[in-house]
Amino acid sequence: MHLKDKKLGVIGTGKMGSALIKGICDSGIIAPSKVYASDVYDLGLERMRTELGINVSNDNDLTVVNSDIILLAVKPQILKSVLRSIKDKITGEKLVISIAAGVPLQEIAKELEPETRIIRVMPNIAATVSEAASAICPGPTASMEDAELALEMFGAVGSAIIVQEKLMDAVTGLSGSGPAYIFPVIEAMADGGVYEGLDRDSALVLAAQTVLGAAKMALEFHTHPGELKDMVTSPAGTTIRGIKELEERGVRAAFMNAVIASAKRSRELGE
């Protein structure tokens, strides 16, 4: 069975939840009339009902009852209390997907019936524009069909891969938090352009498109990033001067350490 035949319930419509709802509706894999969302905040719910045409409510039980797939998009700190409140409404036919950072499958399973099918996913905010990077980890009770449904759902809003759960903290540090590392890079590159005389709008377009183009080359060329860098870097040219500045100021190490620090925090949230 494909996603088009399923009804999706989303509990939590903050930045990540709303990004996924928008991406899923825009992709057309699930009709808005088959999407149910609940949250304690009316303003965001009403905006999505108006803009996307989905069903909204303040009642999580209503979302669960009306859905085949329940997507939990709440903060890790409140996930367990949400699970306890909806436990009685989650029947064996329903698939539970959690995107709560750092919360292991085992901890989710403790709050639900033993036979509950659970999948853990770490997407990122780029789902808003259907360019998310998502890692999927099916629980022991999830079927192959469940995993394929998750791949279809998150693949419709970007790229999705299946990983072992022990790697989910690394995924959180890399792609889950990653967009926030790149936005300051775009801003800083644009600032450099402004310093050299470009107007702000032009500089931002050039900087953002440069990052987008570089990412697309990395994905489509299947070539080591170092080789791609060498394609742009001519002897005694302008690019190598810029590369030298980045290396001297430890930019590469800073990005590595950002991923490591974020992964560490993800592990702390799961403790």
Quickly list its features:
single chain, 271 residues, alpha/beta, Rossmann fold, ProC C-terminal domain-like fold, 2 domains, 8-stranded mixed β-sheet, 54% helix, elongated
How would you summarize what this structure contains?
Helices cover 54% and strands 14% of the residues. It contains 12 helices and 8 strands. The protein has an 8-stranded mixed sheet.
- List low-pLDDT spans: none
- Beta fraction: 5-15%
How are strands sequenced across the largest beta sheet? 3-2-1-4-5-6-7-8
Chain-averaged pLDDT: 94
Distance between the first and last residues' Cα: 36 Å
Protein structure class: alpha/beta
* CATH third-level topology of the largest domain: Rossmann fold
How would you describe what is shown here?
The structure is a single chain. With 271 residues, the chain is an alpha/beta fold. Helix content is 54%, strand content 14%. The protein has an eight-stranded mixed beta sheet. Helix 7 packs across helix 12 and helix 8 crosses helix 9. The chain is elongated and about 65 Å long.
